[in-house]
Amino acid sequence: MAHAPEHSTDRPEILDRVNPAELPRSKLILNDRGFHWITDKVCGIVEEPTPLWWKVTFAVALFIASFTGAGLFYLVSTGTGTWGLRSPIGWGWAIVNFVFWVGIGHAGTLISAILCLLRQKWRTSINRAAEAMTIFAVMCAGIFPLFHVGRVWFAWWLFPLPNQNGIWPQFRSPLEWDVFAVSTYFTVSTLFWYMGMVPDLGAIRDRAKTWWRKAFYSVLALGWRGGNRQWSNFEMAYLLLAGLSTPLVLSVHTIVSFDFAVSNVPGWHTTIFPPYFVAGAIFSGFAMVLTLMLPLRAIYRLHDVINQYHIDNMCKIILATGTMVGYAYATEFFIAAYSGNAYEKFAFVNRAFGQYAWAYWIMVSCNVITPQLFWFKKIRENHALVWIICLFVNVGMWFERFVITVTSLANDYLPSSWGYYSPTIVDIFTFFGTFGFFSVLFLLFVRFLPLLPMAEVKMVTPQADPHAH
Amino acid sequence: MPTDSDVSTAMNERNESIHGVACTFRSPSDVFHAAEKVRDAGWKIWDVHTPFPIHGMDQAMGLPRSKVPRLTLLGGVTGFITGCLLTWYMNSYDYPLVVGGKPYWSPIFPFPVMYECTILFAAFGTFFGQFILNRLPRHHHPLFDLPQFARTSDDTFMIVLEARDKNFHLDESRNFLLSLGGQEITVIRE
Predict the structure, then answer these.
(1) Helix H or strand E encompassing A357
(2) What angle do CA A8, A10, A15 make, to 5 degrees?
(3) How far apart are alpha carbons A275 and A278 in whole angstroms?
């Protein structure tokens, strides 16, 4: 949110001698919408009577979420053996789903933090929803390692808390680093999201007609008054949280990739993993942002605030990160060949042509080939197609984690202990249900909290500039 | 320069039940230029309420740089030290454990933990620091009783001159705000 003043008083000398051309800039907000329109639009979403589509979607989401409940209930009451994990594959869908969901979250932080530091003003329209997505995705991700520990009631042993055995967590393990990285990520993302929301909650409070609404939003808004003395600290804190979240988000998926890279399994033990995982995370996350925002934009008629310029930018980021991911796939192959290590070479040939070749080629076609369509303006302007391509990316990124996790474990050093992994119905139920769990949380967010950061969107309109005439 | 008699009249007329005078403005540019004049008139206890932060308003009000970064630094340093002590105490002092022939403690292997603790505590410092410096939460402010105040989170801009400022004089301050191009002028009661 913090921007340096753009109206510098030092006018370059050259400007007196030349006649500068006016370069048309893409408008962030179409149709010259004013401040009041923005307030009405965003508060209107919260204030209107619950729409029918919301009730129906919410009921469906709750039903789907119950599958996770059923899967976990069966797992806890019976044992981890009900998952498809067998020697030699000790990490199956649980870690795949964990990495998938954590990766989704990364786009939210990229938008809220990294694009803030890079002064990308277009981020304001999608910032809040993307941050909400981050938090809910991390919650979904957390379910899997939490239940994978087996006796979930001892999951608190992961944290540095004294227990009756008198022993402590073991900090040489990348899994323990992950506990710190993911819980810090969740906490900081939530603080950042909430702090950014306080002024907007104040705006909803100020418009509230009924006492319960007034009470609810008053408590959440903490008595925010929007004085410039408050804004001054707020903007500084916002900038600092963006600055802290940037190294944080890069470290989280780096540490997630350490779960693999620090082991000595062929196909995992590579130094390319951290940047490759971070690019993949941003790639999948942007696909999820578009998957969520395109329908919401249509339902709430947000076309003036989230316009073609925003969609173009997101498509281009998907294109860029998708190409990086494709480059990483190629580099892995090259390094495997160049290393001269027989196991490493085998691991990669086996990925592409072995028993899991079907998964590998789903991954390549969804992640490397489909996003290349975004080179074409016609395709970026066809929103139904954009949405479908984003679904492909979501599927492809899930398969990427499946390929990495399962192929390396199924065929490692000893051919005598090779195996083939398939999930059980319990695995499928648990994962399927997380989409419902995620949707339940996201729908509640859409219904009760400001979907767009009103203050930030107002700030990037041309009339917000105090030097405008 | 106010003379002694001016100050005493102001003191007499200063009603304890008055919080200040509020005045609304229509546009960011109006309130921006008005704020510059209030600053130049030597006001110290006053504020500009806006629906969004206005670029350059800190300078227009003559505000110093925010103190939040100090609390961020404090949090970050605390977090780093916590991370170091946590990993050293648990894996090297209280329950030394040999794992893979690695040292009991080194700054290398627990670095991710120290790194995350640094960020976590720095974020706590920033988040709570911001609310502490802004004196929030506070739900009972006299401004909330003002009907126009609700619109400052929508599309209205407001300058509030507080009665605690030594420049405050009910009638003069009211006229001063009018001369700045204010729209609606209201007296805020405590």
Answers:
(1) helix A357-364
(2) 105
(3) 5
d(CA B11, CA B4): 11
CA distance A7 to A102: 40
pLDDT in tens, A255-269: 999 999 998 899 899
Distance from C-alpha of A397 to C-alpha of A326, rounded to nearest angstrom: 12
Cβ–Cβ pairs < 8 A, chains A and B: 216
| 3-class SS of residue B62 | coil
3-state secondary structure of B185: strand
Q: What gap in Å lies between CA B147 and CA B1, rounded to an integer?
A: 35
Nearest to A237 among B129, B140, B160 (CB): B129
pLDDT at B141 over 60: yes
**A233 → closest Cβ in B60, B133, B139:** B133
Contact residues on chain B for A467, CB-CB shorter than 8 A: 29, 32
- Closest by Cβ to A35, choosing from B61, B94, B155: B155
**Predicted confidence (pLDDT) per residue in A416-457, tens digit:** 989 999 999 999 999 999 999 999 999 999 999 999 999 999
User: In chain B, what residues touch A184 (CB-CB under 8 Å)?
Assistant: 116-117, 119-120
> pLDDT digits over A10-22, tens only?
777 777 788 877 7
Cβ within 8 Å of residue B102, ≥6 positions away: A172, B109
How far is it, in rounded angstroms, from Cα A166 to Cα B172?
71
Q: Which of B71, B126, B135, B160 to mutate to test the interface with A (most CBs of A within 10 A)?
A: B126
- Chain B positions touching A7 (Cβ under 8 A) are 55-56
Closest CA–CA distance from residue A361 to any residue of chain B (Å):
34
CATH topology of domain A27-158+169-458: Formate dehydrogenase/DMSO reductase fold (1.20.1630)
Other CB atoms within 10 Å distance of the CB of residue A368:
18
Contacts of A218 in chain B (CB under 8 A): 139
DSSP string, B69-128: HHHHHHHHHHHHHHHHHHHHIIIIIIS----TT--S--SSTTHHHHHHHHHHHHHHHHHH
Q: Is the dihedral of CA A137, B111, A332, A353 positive or negative?
A: negative
Q: What are phi and psi of A242, to 5 degrees?
A: -65, -40
